[in-house]
Write a structure and sequence with these properties.
alpha+beta; 12 strands
C-alpha cells in the first residue's frame, strides 16, 4: 500500500496559481498511490481571502478528479460566507481501497490570548486492504500557538489509544444496519499530516511517549525506515517570505507499533512546487 500525505496550501503553487488538477497530476507522478491525505482544502474563500483562489469548492473538485476513490472530507473551519454559501477549510482523505467506518474529531482549541489560530480537525478512515484493514488518520495542527499544538498532540494520542482499545476488544454488539451497527476497528494505524512542529520539539517527543494503559507506542515512520538519518525538510524549500528563512521539517507520518515491520520506505519529494509544502510518500508491505 502506498500513502501520500501533503499540505497543498489550498492547491496553490509557488507560482501563485491555484490548480487542484495540478495537485492530482503531481500526486500521480509521485506514485500509484492507494490513499491520498490532503491538508488545507478550501471552499468559498475567493481571493483576497485566500490568495489566488476563485472560491471553488475544492472538496468537490478533488473528488471529481479522482472518481475511483472514496472521498472523506473534514472541515475544521465552517464560517458564514456571502449569500447562502458557507466557507469551509480543512482536510480530506481519498482512498482507492474500500472505506469502512469514518470518524471525525474536532481537536482541542484552548484559549491562548492574543495568539492567532483556527479550529483543527482529525479525520479517520478505516481503509480495507489485502494485507488487512488500516486506520488512516490525517490532521493539520496549529501553527501559531504552542499551547494549542501540544493539546492537539495529546488529543491525537488519545484518539489513537481509544481506537486501539476498541480494536483489542473487537466485540460486535449490533448488526442491524442501523447507526449502532458495530464495525470492528483494526489495530494497524497511520497518523499523517502537517504537525507544525520539528523532529526535536516537545510535541514530537510527546507523540512517541509510552502509554500508561499499555497501548503500543507510536513510531515516527521516518526513523523506522531511516534510523539515524535526519528528517528531510518539507516546508519553506521553494517558497520563503525572507531569503534567509530556514527550511522546516513539519510533515510527519506516525505508525502504530504493529506497522513497524511493514514500513518498507518513506520519502519526501523535494522537487514539486505545486504547493509550499513537499509531499511525503509511505510504502507499506
Amino acid at each position: 500500500m502506498i500513502l501520500i500525505t501533503w499540505n497543498v496550501q489550498w492547491c496553490r503553487g509557488v507560482d501563485g496559481v491555484v490548480d487542484p488538477a495540478r495537485i492530482v497530476a503531481e500526486a500521480k507522478r509521485l506514485a500509484d498511490f492507494d490513499v491520498l491525505c490532503l491538508q488545507e482544502i478550501a471552499d468559498n474563500y475567493p481571493d483576497p481571502r485566500l490568495a489566488g483562489s476563485d472560491g471553488d469548492d475544492q472538496f468537490a473538485r478533488l473528488a471529481q478528479l479522482l472518481p475511483d476513490f472514496t472521498v472523506v472530507p473534514g472541515a475544521a473551519v465552517d464560517q458564514p460566507g456571502d449569500g447562502d454559501r458557507r466557507r469551509r477549510f480543512g482536510n480530506m482523505i481519498l482512498s482507492r481501497p474500500p472505506v469502512r467506518q469514518v470518524y471525525r474529531y474536532l481537536l482541542p482549541y484552548p484559549c491562548d490570548p492574543g495568539v492567532p489560530g483556527m479550529p483543527r480537525i482529525a479525520i479517520e478512515a478505516v481503509v480495507g486492504a489485502p494485507s488487512g484493514d488500516l486506520r488512516v488518520i490525517t490532521t493539520h495542527l496549529e501553527y501559531y500557538s504552542a499551547k494549542q499544538r501540544m493539546a492537539q498532540s495529546d488529543a491525537l494520542r488519545a484518539i489513537y489509544a481509544e481506537g486501539h482499545a476498541y480494536a483489542r476488544d473487537a466485540q460486535v454488539t449490533m448488526t442491524d444496519g442501523g447507526p449502532f451497527q458495530t464495525f470492528v476497528r483494526p489495530l494497524a494505524t497511520v497518523i499523517t499530516g502537517d504537525c507544525n512542529f520539528e523532529p526535536d520539539s516537545p510535541e514530537h517527543r510527546r507523540m512517541l511517549e509510552p502509554f500508561a494503559d499499555g497501548t503500543p507506542p507510536l513510531r515516527d515512520a521516518w526513523d523506522v525506515a531511516h534510523r539515524g538519518a535526519p528528517h528531510p525538510a518539507t516546508f519553506k524549500i521553494h517558497e520563503k517570505k525572507r531569503p534567509d528563512e530556514p527550511e522546516l521539517h513539519c510533515d510527519f507520518i506516525f505508525v502504530g507499533d504493529e506497522l513497524r515491520e511493514r514500513v518498507r520506505d518513506i520519502r519526501v519529494d523535494r522537487k514539486t512546487q505545486a504547493s509550499d509544502h513537499q509531499p511525503v510518500i509511505l510504502t507499506l508491505a
